[in-house]
Amino acid sequence: MRKALKIIVTGRIQGVGFRPFVYSLSIKYDLTGTVQNNVGCVIIIVEGNEKKVSDMVNELELSPPPLSKINEIRINQIPLNGYLEFSIISSEISSDAVPWMSPDAAICKHCLEELMDPHNRRFQYPFINCTQCGPRYTIIDSLPYDRPNTTMREFEMCHLCRKEYENPLNRRHHAQPICCPVCGPTVTLHNERGESLTEQQRAVNHTVDLLKQGKIIGIKGIGGYHLACDAYQERVIDQLRLTKKRPQRPLAIMAKSVDVARKFCNISTKEVEMLTSPEMPIVVLKKKRDGLLPQNLSPGLSTLGIMLPYTPLHHLLFENSGLECMVMTSANSSGLPIHYKDESLPNIQEMCDFLLTHNRNIHFPIDDSVVQCNGENTLYLRRARGFVPDPLETNAKVDQLIALGGNQKNTFAVGKKNYIVMSPHIGDLENEEMIHSFEEQLHHFKEWLGVEEPYIAVDKHPFYASNSIAEKLKSKVIPIQHHHAHHVSCMEDNGLEEPCLGIILDGTGYGEDGHIWGFEFLYGNGHSFERLAHLQYTPLPGGEKAVKEPWRNAVGMLLYYWPIQGKEWSTKLFPEKLNEIHIIESMINNHINTPMAGTCGRLFDAISAILGVCLTSTYEGEAAIKLSDALDEPQIESDESYSFHLETNSKNQTQLDLSPMIYQIIQDKLNNHPNTKIIQTFHRTIVSCCVQTVQKLVENRPELNKSVVLSGGSFQNIYLVREIKRRLQIEGFNVYTHKNVPCHDGGLSIGQIIIASHAVNKVPMDI
Q1: Would you kindly state where each structural domain of the chain is located, as residue ranges?
Q2: Which Gene3D superfamilies match (predicted)?
Q3: Are the beta carbons of 291 and 232 closer than 8 angstroms?
Q4: Burial of 417 (0-12, 13-18, 19+ CB in 10 A)
Q5: Burial grade of 296 (CB within 10 A; 0-12, 13-18, 19 or more)
Q6: Closest to 313 (Cα-Cα) out of 67, 15, 102, 111
Q7: Where does 511-577 have alpha helices with state H?
């Protein structure tokens, strides 16, 4: 008995070989009909033997192409039409569906085998790709994803590539970036004057020689330019740091293989999976103690970011070259956007000795993603290449809404139907160049998704760049409190809608009372929130200056809590800062440029300075990162923690007073107790005070939901996440952490867009 079905598949199904996959199934099961791309879906009509049709659908559901992500399959039986064959028909460009686009994918094993095969016509060709690998997001300028809508339109296919492209049974059928040495892009090596030296494999070989000689090479990749150098050569790494104006922040390296990476780091099975996944992100790994690599790669840290070669060009640089690992960092000065346009070449050439570039244009810039394994899940430190622009499904009414995120680690979010599309990591919006890059990418996303932004969500901080950006767009602006957005971001990441508790440990966020928040205990959801508890405020002398110089923050706390003794301790802890301590004392007494702050980030900064771990931060979070890194010293088993008080303030909020802890830490430091022990006890205290605060809140308000979300930048600290979650679960709480977006400000826009949807749609809620 014959049967006909209409099958609509939604999800990431474009640019992943889905149509040729369906075509191959039609041959396997002797079916007729059609398959067609639509914006956001694939429409399949199949006719044939009832059992074979059923078998085909079963295989479609269970074994789709590796790069695809099926969101939904809708199947309807239709009348037989009498198709004589199965055919792939032209893409349909008119649709109201959500336009899913495939992220860029690392080179697949089949292309890698061909790349290294002397008998293959693409042998040593740096742009080899197929439907399962290569550039996607970075080369497309409009939908549907067809070659004329990509930067590959400039390269006319040769006869052989055209034949592969049009053959439904070929691995490169409708692979839009398809090319070969005859018809595709070319790699060229330039000297510091911009003069062309050589091309293709000769350029690759010459680059390897230069890297071994200690030169810095600018290399054009999938989403922008990198600066590369030999990771074994300490001198050239120092030179690279000077060039990038990046004195301390860790530099990532690219290792030839997992085996090479194991020479430097301890790597778990889960971390191997991360390293070798199609996304191939930078994975933060624990360094081995034998120190094979220079310490100036990640100064003062026990971790190192490593990625594997993910483009054909990367593999060619390592193949038979003797190179084992290279520093591979974005080609931009610290705090400026990644360079990706060819007109930026003069700026890149100022930063490197030679330039290995190519003539395939990049339409969208994108950084390398950075992830870390927290023992259970993948922790996203930077969500970019390989993960963007996969949409996130939501139950909220977010269609046509835009959220602009925060000022640091910025991402924005765009609502389309019942999906949220997040931008890649953009960076800190601290200068005109970064703001221009943000606006340019936002414009692309709006055009691509067809969004008119009647409403725009922004952070409540009056001086964030997002506010001035929103004003230019002439839309209705919805201000969102920073930590409420963090709270809801984690809720959305876990599919939670009912009001719940939230512990938000963060660096800096504008509070509704005009003070700086960042150690918050909230209750609510996307509709509204209530602040139930927070850390006691202390002065932040000089505001932003105290963030960059944590010792000032420490002095501010000591002088606030103990005006006389605190000054004595400050001079003992920071003897070279005596004049500045006098000035800070005056600032506090006279309330001059000393905002009041109660944040986890600033607390970590102060303790880091008191212990002499980091007095001045050269990159965001350096003091806290180096303090928490010391936890990785051999652990001293103990349940010991420092003292703290929980009090009730005039607003009937619980207030956390950690001054007893700070006092004990100072005494331990002045009495020469080991830093490692102090740091471990400090961390245990933070865990204990968070757990006890939540317990007290629920005791006072037994009607509260016992679900707790953990969000905010301080939860990049794996120990805090693990131990707070473990301790709360023992006490009967359901605890949720981030899964798909960063816990820091890189995930802020997700919370903002959900809160904005509630504001726009006036969703009722009872707390």
Answers
A1: 2-92, 109-166, 187-370, 391-494+745-761, 503-734
A2: 3.30.110.120, 3.30.420.360, 3.30.420.40, 3.90.870.50
A3: no
A4: middle
A5: middle
A6: 111
A7: 544-548, 550-561, 565-573
Select from 72, 69, 63 the least CA-distant residue to 101: 69
Active site residues per annotation: 19, 37
Residue with tokens 């405020």: 537
DSSP β-ladder status, 282-287 and 370-373 = parallel
Amino acid at site 68? S
Whether the model pTM is above 0.90: yes
- Tell me how far CA of residue 284 lies from CA of 317, 575, 716, in angstroms: 23, 36, 12
CB 117 within 8 A of CB 162: no
pLDDT tens-digit map of 30-64: 999 999 887 678 899 999 999 999 999 999 999 99
The residue among 608, 599, 470 whose CA lies nearest residue 543 is 599
Which tens digits make up the pLDDT trace of 349-397?
Answer: 899 999 999 999 999 999 999 999 987 778 999 999 999 998 999 999 9
Q: Is 486 exposed, middle or buried (0-12, 13-18, 19+ CB in 10 A)?
A: buried
Tokens coding 641: 């923690």
Which residue from 523, 466, 488, 515 is spatially nearest to 704, judged by alpha carbons? 523
Mapping DSSP onto H, E and C, the string for 497-511 reads: CCCEEEEEEEEEEEC
Q: Which one, of 344, 337, 567, 315, lies nearest residue 439 by Cα? A: 337
Q: Which residue(s) pair with 7 in the sheet?
A: 44, 75
pLDDT tens figures, 475-497: 899 999 999 999 999 999 999 99
| The CATH number of domain 2-92, selected from 3.40.50.11540, 3.30.70.100, 3.40.50.880, 3.40.50.620 | 3.30.70.100
Written in H, E and C, the secondary structure of 172-216 is: CCCCCCCCCCCCCCCEEEECCCCCEEEEHHHHHHHHHHHHHCCCC
- Which uninterrupted H or E stretch holds 607? helix 600-610
What are the Cα distances from residue 703, in Å, to 148, 499, 649, 767? 59, 11, 21, 9
Q: Are 733 and 706 in contact (CB under 8 A)?
A: yes
Token pair, residue 276, equals 């070798």
Architecture, CATH, for domain 391-494+745-761? 2-Layer Sandwich (3.30)
> What is the residue whose two structure tokens read 């693990």?
722
Within 10 Å of residue 279's Cβ, how many Cβ atoms? Answer: 21
3-state secondary structure of 612: coil
Task: Answer yes or no: are the C-beta atoms of 157 and 176 closer than 8 Å.
Answer: no
- CB 185, CB 359: distance < 8 Å: yes
Helix extents (H) in 245-339? 258-264, 269-276, 312-318
Q: Give me the residue label for tokens 């230069």.
A: 210
- Give the side-chain half-sphere CA count within 13 A for 123: 6
- The CA distances from residue 135 to 45, 117, 290, in Å, are 29, 22, 38
2-92 and 503-734 in the same fold: no
Distance of CA 345 to the CA centre of its chain: 27
Of 496, 503, 462, 454, which Cα lies nearest the Cα of 479?
462
User: CA–CA separation, 698 vs 705, rounded Å?
Assistant: 8
Please state which architecture CATH assigns to domain 187-370.
Alpha-Beta Complex (3.90)
> Nearest to residue 604, comparing CAs of 723, 686, 489, 697?
686
The tens digit of pLDDT for each residue in 518-557 reads 999 999 999 999 999 999 999 999 999 999 999 999 999 9
CA distance 687 to 670: 24
Which tokens belong to 435?
């703001």
Phi/psi at 132 (5° precision):
-105, 5
